[in-house]
Write a sequence for this structure.
């Protein structure tokens, strides 16, 4: 009865939809007061011309002597040349990890293990600015994000899991947790140091040793982290960093001496990994793609929701697996929300990642840049209406204007497939049921958002969204104590929090 | 009158996050100098003390006309804001300049007089030469939910203003919630306000950035709906140039360039002008001057 009343009311409100009375009332953001450049200085940053593999506590030349270049996507200039690990190198790294596991790390007093991890956390904090600048140079993300989000969160993860090292028996009451052995970890290019922290911190805390492969476009902070491991006096072989592309990753996945695989990356690669792991006794966690629904109800705080939409899709150039890339907005407020989004997008500053005022930096690589542009073309060909902000883009570097697609349907590829760029699709819905159905009609299920002022609706809708994470009246909030992971093709297993310990232990 | 019993939800956490994000803007070099001068041109130089004297008001007007003699090209402030009994004094002192005289009225700061008395006071200050009238709303009636009374009162004062501009002080420090700030903003704009203003300066907290953002967003929605531009005046507690620049960033990224003029944005402040001058001279000379080089009117 109450439901019925509510829905009639909703329909009435929808018919009374807001229409901007004056099409001329557009805001002007082209005035004489424009912010000057505020570049973060990178004079003091040391990036070597060439980086070797970090195996058994030492930087070692790759067996085949091959190197590939790491490019700054904002300038298209080479930053450094990075060693490519092949079979022999991966063997050596896994062997070093095995030795360290058997002889030192698994038998060490857990409190001592904790001390090492605390030390790594403190060293990241001490060198936070350096890490932030390198992260922005190597990956193109704005310095504001690497400085305020990536690096502090990476340190927080090490602090959090350091605390668990000597308390594991309390994490699993009545059980005796034991480490698995050598963990092979493969991480993506969107949050290089943060994903490293998500992987390495729980593995070390539970007594495992690690062979980690960073993404080939963003190896630098992992190699800087290797220097930290050395500086922290971490026993040799506990953390090994092997650099390279997918081929190197596949060697790690298929290595017989690896006991556990942790992968974050695309669903496509995740499926290949699952196939190769089938029939083995390796444990694995996969954190894969997403096409996050961001659902805005008409009783939401609109201006804050608009800010949330912007944050959900344009954070880190949209290179976020949990990005809110599908906007589902209740029809009564759709015009108003879109008008506000258009105006808000004009104030987004796209440009030099090292400028403190930059909101959207460079697309991570040429490959990704091309992929996003293909999707833009595809969207237009599918009949969607494209809207981009009018900002100027730098002449060099891989940049993409923040983009909205309206007039799209659930069947369109730009609505179904993960674009992994600053591209948002907009669909409307009338009833909550319709919104939930659209939100769930995807093979993905990583994260989503619900915006409403009504507490009961948050729980009612939130519990029906088949996503590992549902944010209410906010988006992209992360904390080391909170588990993260996907439903369906968005992944398997959880990282972060107490749940993040399970994938790294056997319980007896 | 729109139905003000309907509440527009405001998420306080979201507002604070947005303010924090905007505060991370780094304003340097030319854009900083421009911001400082712009802020100076938007100041309503204010004295609202029970012990104000004609002498004090006249000297304040001198400062308004010539803030810092060594830099004659500096903009003047937008207005001098005084109590009703000082309007004619200020008007005379500012004759021949573009600087407006603003007067508080309607039983400032409490606003607890009869409507007749408020209207009489308004007509008087306008007759004495006030170009702008800063009225206070009846917070008691507002909090009691008597929106019609508050609306009618503002409309009546607006009418009494004649050609003078009306700034409506919401006294946000007494409104309890951001939703109330939003509602009072909407109410004032629909009733005819030319400006909405946060505070009298007599109640704590006075102007804050979260409250200002809520009001700017109300102005934006009102503009979308009616195409009419309403001005904004945060007042009280803004003492430093750095804060002023943060407010300008708020305006710039919420309402855009058209609001970045004294016609649509003001600072109600007494000590802000001196810090702006200190910073402007620092940008020019590279060093901070002693405070004794600036008049303390």
């Amino acid at each position: 009865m109450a439901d019925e009343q509510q829905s009639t009311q909703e329909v009435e409100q929808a018919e009374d939809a807001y229409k901007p009375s004056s099409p001329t009332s557009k805001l002007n953001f082209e005035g004489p007061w424009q912010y000057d450049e505020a570049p973060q200085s990178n004079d003091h940053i040391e990036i070597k011309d060439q980086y070797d593999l970090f195996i058994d506590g030492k930087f070692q030349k790759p067996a085949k002597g091959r190197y590939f270049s790491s490019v700054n996507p904002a300038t298209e200039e080479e930053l450094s040349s990075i060693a490519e690990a092949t079979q022999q190198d991966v063997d050596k790294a896994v062997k070093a990890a095995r030795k360290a596991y058997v002889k030192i790390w698994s038998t060490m007093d857990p409190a001592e293990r904790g001390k090492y991890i605390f030390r790594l956390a403190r060293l990241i904090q001490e060198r936070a600015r350096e890490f932030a600048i390198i992260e922005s140079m190597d990956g193109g993300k704005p310095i504001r994000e690497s400085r305020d989000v990536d690096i502090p969160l990476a340190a927080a993860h090490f602090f959090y899991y350091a605390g668990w090292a000597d308390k594991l028996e309390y994490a699993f009451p009545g059980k005796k947790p034991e480490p698995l052995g050598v963990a092979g970890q493969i991480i993506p290019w969107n949050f290089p140091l943060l994903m490293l922290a998500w992987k390495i911190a729980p593995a070390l805390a539970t007594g495992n040793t690690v062979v980690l492969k960073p993404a080939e476009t963003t190896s630098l902070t992992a190699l800087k982290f290797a220097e930290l491991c050395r500086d922290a006096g971490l026993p040799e072989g506990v953390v090994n960093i092997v650099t390279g592309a997918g081929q190197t990753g596949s060697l790690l996945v298929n290595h017989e001496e690896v006991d556990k695989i942790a992968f974050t990356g695309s669903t496509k690669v995740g499926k290949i990994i699952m196939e190769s792991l089938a029939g083995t006794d390796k444990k694995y966690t996969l954190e894969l793609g997403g096409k996050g629904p961001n659902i805005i109800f008409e009783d939401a705080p609109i201006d804050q929701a608009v800010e949330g939409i912007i944050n959900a899709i344009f954070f880190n150039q949209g290179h976020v697996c949990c990005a809110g890339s599908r906007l589902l907005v209740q029809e009564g407020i759709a015009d108003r929300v879109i008008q506000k989004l258009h105006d808000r997008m004009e104030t987004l500053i796209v440009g030099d990642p090292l400028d403190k005022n930059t909101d959207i930096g460079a697309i991570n690589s040429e490959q990704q840049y091309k992929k996003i542009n293909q999707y833009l073309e595809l969207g237009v060909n599918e009949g969607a209406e494209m809207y981009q902000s009018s900002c100027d883009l730098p002449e060099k570097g891989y940049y993409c204007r923040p983009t909205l697609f309206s007039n799209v349907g659930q069947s369109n590829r730009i609505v179904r497939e993960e674009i992994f760029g600053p591209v948002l699709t907009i669909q409307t819905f009338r009833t909550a049921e319709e919104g939930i159905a659209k939100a769930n009609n995807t093979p993905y299920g990583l994260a989503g958002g619900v915006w409403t002022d009504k507490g009961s609706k948050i729980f009612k809708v939130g519990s029906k969204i088949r996503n590992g994470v549902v944010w209410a009246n906010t988006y992209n909030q992360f904390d080391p104590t909170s588990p993260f992971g996907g439903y369906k093709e968005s992944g398997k297993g959880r990282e972060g929090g107490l749940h993040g310990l399970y994938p790294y232990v056997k319980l007896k | 009158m729109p139905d003000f019993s309907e509440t527009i939800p405001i998420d306080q956490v979201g507002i604070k996050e947005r303010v924090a994000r905007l505060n991370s803007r780094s304003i340097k070099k030319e854009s900083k100098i421009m911001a400082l001068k712009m802020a100076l041109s938007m100041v309503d130089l204010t004295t609202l003390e029970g012990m104000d004297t004609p002498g004090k008001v006249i000297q304040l007007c001198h400062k308004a006309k010539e803030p810092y003699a060594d830099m004659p090209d500096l903009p003047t402030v937008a207005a001098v804001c005084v109590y009703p009994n000082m309007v004619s004094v200020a008007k005379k002192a500012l004759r021949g300049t573009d600087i407006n005289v603003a007067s508080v009225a309607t039983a400032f700061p409490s606003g607890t007089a009869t409507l007749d008395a408020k209207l009489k006071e308004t007509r008087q200050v306008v007759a004495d030469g006030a170009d702008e009238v800063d009225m206070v709303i009846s917070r008691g009636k507002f909090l009691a939910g008597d929106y019609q009374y508050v609306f009618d009162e503002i409309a009546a004062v607006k009418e009494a203003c004649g050609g003078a501009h009306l700034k409506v002080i919401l006294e946000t420090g007494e409104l309890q919630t951001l939703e109330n700030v939003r509602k009072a903003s909407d109410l004032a704009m629909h009733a005819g306000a030319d400006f909405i203003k946060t505070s009298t300066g007599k109640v704590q907290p006075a102007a804050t950035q979260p409250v200002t953002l809520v009001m700017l967003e109300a102005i934006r929605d009102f503009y979308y709906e009616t195409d009419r531009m309403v001005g904004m005046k945060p007042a009280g507690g803004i003492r430093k140039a750095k804060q002023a620049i943060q407010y300008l960033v708020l305006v710039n990224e919420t309402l855009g360039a058209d609001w970045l003029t004294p016609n649509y944005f003001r600072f109600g402040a007494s000590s802000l002008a001196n810090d702006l001058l200190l910073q402007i001279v620092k940008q020019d000379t590279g060093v901070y001057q002693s405070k004794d080089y600036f008049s303390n009117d």
